[in-house]
Design brief:
Blueprint lengths: L2 E5 L4 H12 L3 E6 L12 E5 L5 H14 L4 E4 L14 H28 L3 E5 L12 H21 L5 E7 L12 E3 L9 H12 L9 E4 L6 E3 L1
Parallel strand pairs: 1-2, 1-4, 2-3, 4-5, 5-6, 6-8
Antiparallel strand pairs: 7-9
Helix pairs in contact: 1-5, 2-3, 3-4
Length: 230
């Protein structure tokens, strides 16, 4: 049974991917800050409480997991977004975005990379459609996601000869709690947003490819582009 480490496992896209992986009979180590609102009764699910904003916590997390098992798949999904004119986003929020969206995945990957090479493993980074274009209402957020995308591309070129696969998934606006504290959200029409399960299905598609074929970049968009202001 292959073992997966996934961050952001307590809500939204991360939770949907976690449920999909358990359905597919993977053993899942899910990382999050608060598991009180989810109830996954599966012997193959191992919740791990960790605040990824501090790199020291990430190092401790890696040590703990390495004592218990060897990871075959790393999925970096945890993320946060703050939007608005750049001068209105305070340094604390900027630090959170950079730390969680970019620094944490890079550090986690470094800590598990030798193991993943040995096991010819897979790394999946959940980026964003904003990584591909200029954003005038969230330039810092899009920069973190663009950085993650560029990191993924460079890392794949570095490690592909070892058998490690590196995949970026770039969702467009997704109907999740991500927008609860923002002043905009997805449209009301069903074809104006994607669901977390759509991203989870993309992860499943990654694993159905023949050995030697890698879907290095997957963009998922709704049919229509509608942003609703709150």
């Amino acid at each position: 049974m292959k073992k997966v480490l996934i961050t952001g496992a307590t809500s939204g896209i991360g939770l949907a991917i976690t449920k999909k992986l358990l359905e597919l009979k993977y053993e899942v180590y899910g990382v999050g800050r608060d598991f009180s609102k989810i109830n996954i009764l599966d012997e193959n699910f191992h919740p791990i409480i960790c605040d990824l904003l501090k790199y020291q916590n990430i190092e401790e997390l890696a040590k703990k997991i390495k004592k218990e098992t060897e990871i075959d798949i790393l999925i970096n999904c945890a993320g946060v977004g703050f939007f608005g004119p750049h001068e209105e986003i305070n340094p604390t929020k900027l630090h959170k975005m950079i730390s969680l969206n970019l620094e944490a995945p890079i550090i986690l990957t470094q800590l598990f990379l030798r193991e993943l090479k040995k096991r010819r493993g897979t790394i999946i980074n959940i980026s964003s459609i904003t990584a591909t274009k200029a954003s005038t209402y969230g330039c810092a957020y899009s920069a973190t996601k663009a950085g993650l995308l560029h990191f993924s591309k460079g890392l794949f070129e570095e490690v592909r000869k070892t058998g490690v696969k590196v995949i970026s998934i770039l969702p467009d606006i997704t109907k999740t709690s991500f927008y609860d504290n923002l002043n905009f959200k997805e449209g009301d029409e069903e074809d104006s947003y994607i669901l977390p399960e759509c991203v989870a299905n993309a992860v499943e598609t990654v694993f159905t490819q023949r050995e030697g074929t890698v879907l290095t970049e997957i963009i998922i968009q709704p049919q229509r582009h509608i942003i609703k202001r709150k």
